[in-house]
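--- STAGE predict ---
source: upstream dedup step, 1 unique chain passed
mode: sequence only
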Amino acid sequence: MPTLTLPEFAPGLPAARVDASLRQALAACDQARECAALWFAEVARRGLYRQLGHASLQLYATQDLGFSDNRYHQFKRLADDLERLPVLREAVATGQVGWTKAQQVARVATEATQAAWVEKAVTTGRRELERQVRHVRQVQRATKRRAVAPAQLAFAAAGEPTDVETVTPLLAEAPTTISLRADSVRLARYEALVAKAHKLGLAPAGGDRLDLVLAALESLVAAGGGEMRPAAGPTAQIIVQQCPDCERAAVTTSRGEKRVAPAQLAALACDARVRRPGQANRATIPPSVRAAVLARDRHRCATPGCGSTHFLEVHHVRPRGQGGTNRAENLITLCSRCHGFVHERGGAVAPAQAEAG
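--- STAGE serialize ---
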């Protein structure tokens, strides 16, 4: 990527010099954004935010980089697009395509059309590229209204994206696979929640699991961050089996028995109900104390910048193995993601979190 230097500011220069300096500064800004986007995508792709002390990419961006939520989502969207479109990523890395053009290309390019769109971005001005992207998006919306799908939005010989009449339609487009990765505990939780939703009759009639996930997302969006609050206790329980001899633990799922990582097990042990043969069930934290801690922390994760209100667990600031108690002043509310991450790092809670408790 070529290096641009910032012009030193000096008042009172002639108009032509001011214009040239401004253009040079704007070019440097664009290059800086391209460079930042590539580094951000590297952090996202390799999960480096965890090594930098954060349970999620968003927490790293908002807490360490000072991003607003809007700026984070802008960078995250482009990082995802660069991962999805390697030809575009290479064009950005080599300086062929700038930040603004890359954002436009990512709105319409697919794996099949990315090379053509990158070529178009290289040879076309910014406004003309925006016009062509807008045109193709209109075509995409039109084909959806006509209940047909284009084989691909190719480029005609003249260089213009094809319009509705010249797009080759298909009677039906192949379904898209949405893949989600889950560790053993989250897989078990997902299956338990799906089973309970069906049991309670909450699943859409005749729907599949995707319909159920969409219904859940619609409920979240409808709540809009309002007063809807999860129950103090878990809405669905998962069973973790632990060997008393080797202390290995696992959960049973539809995909077989899945091992539970030591850090996950430690997080679960903080806030669980323990069942031992021949003994009464025992909560690691008394229910009344747990409810008081959740209420004190306003049913939100205490990790700075997180504030999640779902899948909440209670963590011991000072581990019980080191003399920590089940008193409320030694407990703090964390979401399951942040809780697991804390135990991956040895169980220590950041000072700001401890003070929040």
